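During the reporting period the student researcher (J.K.) took over the structure-prediction task from the postdoctoral fellow and processed the backlog of single-chain submissions. One of the processed entries is reproduced below for the supervisory committee.
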Amino acid sequence: MPDLFQLDLLLPDLFLLDLPLPDLPPDLLFPAGLLPLPPLAMGIVCAGVAVAYVIFGIAGFGTALVAGPVLANWLPLSTIVPLLALLDFAAASVNVARDRNAADRSELRRLVPAMLAGSAVGAAILLLGQPAPLQLALGLFALAYGMYSAIGWRPAAAFSPRAALPFGVVGGICSALFGSGGFLYAIYLGRRIASPDRQRVTQSTLIGLSTLTRLILFLLAGVYADRPVWMLALMLAPAMLIGTTIGRRITLSLPKATFLKMVSVVVAASGAALVWRYVAL
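J.K. obtained the following structure tokens:
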């Protein structure tokens, strides 16, 4: 089992980006003494989390791309990773509870076993090998696919149901290694499901199951014995709920072509994050 120093492998290294945020004196930042973060920082983090979960509400994944760099200005990765796991699981659960009948269960039956198998393989690679070459290859693939899709390119035909096996396995591996498997599920589901809302709910269900695996890992590692993680999760829950609600409403009003283009942009950004992480190693 990876120790806490290996948890940084579970999120893209966009967290290493420096944001131009104000450098304020401690007496202004820490007047209350009751918040897990300074009041001004908490406001910035809440805004970033809300925007991140608007993206999640639309695409069903991608929160780390926005929330990660913001949180990294005040929190270590050993806190960010389990915090976002809690929020992602809660957001996915909310989406599934609201629209559980909209999920494509036949696609879930194809993808979930493959995803679980891939997660086991990814955990083994994390413990025994060097995942960097795979990270670069997947990042370049996602970046290229997302960019081509965003400018209007589409495969000529829908994917075969058999494609669930490679996409599920590689998505599970990528989730276990980098916390970034959602873009692969999005590519597959985008060529299998016509309805944007049905695709969003199915995607959220997959992310929820994937995140549950990470939650169990963190529980076994004792990560959630850290009280500030729970305090932050509870305080950020309203921002998460607001973001997912806005994202869901946007999705319901979007034409399918616009929805697919937005998902393609998030896929490309996920690929860029993996490439950035490889370059930063």
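The committee noted the following: Confidence is low (pLDDT under 50) at residues 1-34.
J.K. will present the remaining backlog at the next meeting.
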